[in-house]
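Bug: token stream looks shifted between consecutive jobs. Job 1:
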Amino acid sequence: MGILITAVALILGYGTAYVASEDVRYLTRAGIEQTAILEKRRSLERLVRDTTVPADTRAYLALVLAVRAHAESLGLDAGKTFTTYADVGRDTLLLVLSASPKNCICPHIWKYPIVGRVPYKGFFDVAMARREADRFTARGFDISLRPAAAYSTLGWFEDPLLSTSMVRDSVELAGLVFHEIAHNSLYVKSATPFNESFAQMVGYRSAEEFFRGRGDTLLANRARDRWYDEIVLGEFYDALLTRLEAFYAGKPTGDSLEAGRGAIAQWARAELEGPFGARFRTVRVGRLAERPINNATLVGVRIYRTHLDWFERWYQRHGQSVRVGVAALKELMRGVPGDSAFPRLERALGDSSRARGG
């Protein structure tokens, strides 16, 4: 799914007092890239009618327009998002950096105007991203530098559909459109895990409703099953993070730190190939089970999979309706500070478990 970097925040934050020279170059590049993307926009409706465009591409673009219309029918704030298309001219739109100490799931936090505190940083400049990553590596941090195909400006700009987002998978494409539009509809400042996990639910549940409404049971069930697997993955990662945090609480160092991380990685592999793997409907364990422990990667996992089951329960409680559930959640989150988003949802659900994240 698209990472939520806000180019608008980067541009509007250009003159803020805390910006240093490297940050000025970063903000300048972000502003240039955002401007270039906006200048490349072409009307989706015109492209769908353009017979010089390959038929399969026009079909996917038509799907995006249909998904947009359905998003509006659900009461989501589609605005002008994805009414245009922009070819960015490369395979990777931007790189997203996360960093965390090796002995703690403690993400480094970047601060921006408007969006607040965010546990990642997006780079259009590959060299700049690698320099920043190298600085964290030199400090002994785990780092994750991953590509992102899309992002949202929270409705500040007319976000185009980007060429990097054009996955040839109808369910994932529909889910991406719903996901990004969800950010326009509800955004809690400084609550990245809440915002992204909310958008995950909206993405897949809206896709399911969309395809079922078109009489496409196969794709509707596929969207449902992919959302189910996201919840299962969320449970797995929650168990993994709980185990890691208990281990890190002992403040291990040196060889004992590496040995402990290795042992937990073996446990994780067994869980994925065993009880959790048996529950997956669409996920293929494969390389997932071979991943070493990397706290920065797990920061990203937490961003997109925090309390997914809570959002599912909210959806079920509101008549299995995205429209009703989102409207109620927007009202619930009115004026809430970022660190209170999950606790407020927890109280509304009547859950006695302790809230994490947000």
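Job 2, same session, no restart:
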Amino acid sequence: MHDIRSIRDNPEAFDAALARRGLAPQAAELVALDERRRAAITELQAGQARRNEASKAIGAAKARKDETLAQSLMAEVSTLKDRLAELEVEDRTLGEQLSDRLATIPNLPLADVPDGADENDNALVAEHGAQPAFAFEAREHDTIGPALGLDFEAGAQLAGARFTVVRGTTARLHRALGQFMLDVLTRDHGYEEVIPPLLVRDEVAFGTGQLPKFAEDLFRTTDGRWLIPTAEVSLTNLVREQILPEHALPMRFTALTPCFRSEAGAAGRDTRGFIRQHQFEKAEMVSITTADQSEAEHERMTGCAEDILTRLGLAFRRMKLCTGDMGFSAARTYDLEVWLPGQRRYREISSCSTCTDFQARRMNARYRAEGEKGTRFVHTLNGSGLAVGRTLVAVLENYQQEDGAVAVPEVLQPYLRGLNRLEPKP
């Protein structure tokens, strides 16, 4: 959510930032709507003051037995009552219109975010690790996977397209990956583990920016709750409607949860395999911090996700997303893309974003700085650490063997009681 006062003070800067997002100017309309509301509030306050003044004067006139003046004042109060009721409706209606408009406008990009239209304009920041060399033709995971327990047919029979049943040692490997991620994030990087609700209310989905604009990307239950598309929704809203002491920040949360996405805008994309599913697991990171800490926190969070990839021995690169490829709530996003030798390309496995105070305004999440009476909005950040299914895909493709087996990365073997190979079924 945007601060209308900031827009009013510098409309040109607001429109220039929207233009970087590929959006038309909106400041003039927003300011005009705000001015109409402020005028209604001013008239309402003046009318209330006059009504109170006239009501007192009625008593004084009656005490002096000045019935003519008393009747005149009573008529004025009656007229004011009707007008004040109209102004209250006008104030409420204009306020709702302004809030609705502001709620659909994405966050503004930070100055260092590259301009661009789509993923082709993202900027390479760094590459890490060595791509594996094979003495055979590397295969994609959907070719390797069925003999190892990725049952695409059973998933489709049970639930339809974009669902998969994972079985046997591959299911164990999937579980090991999630546990490994949680252990690294909690033990080595100081995140607090959380088991959050998977179903949330409207205001919670609104707080992180999923509603109202992206309702079609979510699944909704018959009682009006929403299945979370990411644990970011639940974790970030842990501080909604709160005023935190500055010394409590930063807060760092992590959760390993199922996630549910309708993939409404992904028709025809990644229909094969385990890349883009309606249901998947992800280890999520969320940070709640102050404005002066958020830059460093963004680098730290991204580094935590990179640490997991490095320990798994996977080659990856960090990309800074351009203005046209960022999510709705993000002010800057780093994508981590892992090398998939079967596809011979890098694929996104983590997105780490700083949302500045955009989500905090929607949640009314604030903190009180030391020695100050007033409050400030917190800054929120979120990132994948990592998407478990896509990490499974990366392990299958990068550790594949010529005979169809898959070697288990050394860091995962303790979670599998020493198992070092997934053997294909004949």
